[in-house]
Backbone:
């Protein structure tokens, strides 16, 4: 059973989602199944089948979250420091071709969300950044071809 790195914030968010699924969603689904059973013949009861499908999806997500939480190696980013990019670092980079600046935090696979500026430690950009520091240039192989980035700033927050 491999440990999976995760920030404290990501771990807390997963625990919150798990609690919601178990204490809110699960009882609602059980109630919907119970109501649908009252409508008679289950073989042609669309409400029953929809509720059972929802139950399956909910239970699968519960199992997925429980597994991720059990394997989590929670890392408190606020206690990290240094000049090199590591897990948990917030990195400001600039595309050397377009001069577009972007800031990413390197997080675990389960908490990655590019819209929130969080990229997975296993992503091509994060793998290229790990071990580097401000002022370094990195080459990233992307599906659209190679990209060059310069690291402007490395912080831990």
Residues:
């Amino acid at each position: 059973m491999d440990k999976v790195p995760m920030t404290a914030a990501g771990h807390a968010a997963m625990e919150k989602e798990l609690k919601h699924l178990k204490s809110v969603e699960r009882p609602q689904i059980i109630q919907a199944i119970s109501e649908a059973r009252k409508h008679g013949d289950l073989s042609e009861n669309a409400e029953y089948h929809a509720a059972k499908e929802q139950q399956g999806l909910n239970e699968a997500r519960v199992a997925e979250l429980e597994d991720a939480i059990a394997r989590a190696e929670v890392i408190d980013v606020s206690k990290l420091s240094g000049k090199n990019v590591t897990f948990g670092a917030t990195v400001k980079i600039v595309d050397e071709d377009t001069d577009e600046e972007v800031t990413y935090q390197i997080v675990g696979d389960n908490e990655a969300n590019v819209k929130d500026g969080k990229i997975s430690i296993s992503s091509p950009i994060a793998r290229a950044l790990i071990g580097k520091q401000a002022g370094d240039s990195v080459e990233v192989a992307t599906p659209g071809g190679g990209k060059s980035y310069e690291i402007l700033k490395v912080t831990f927050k």
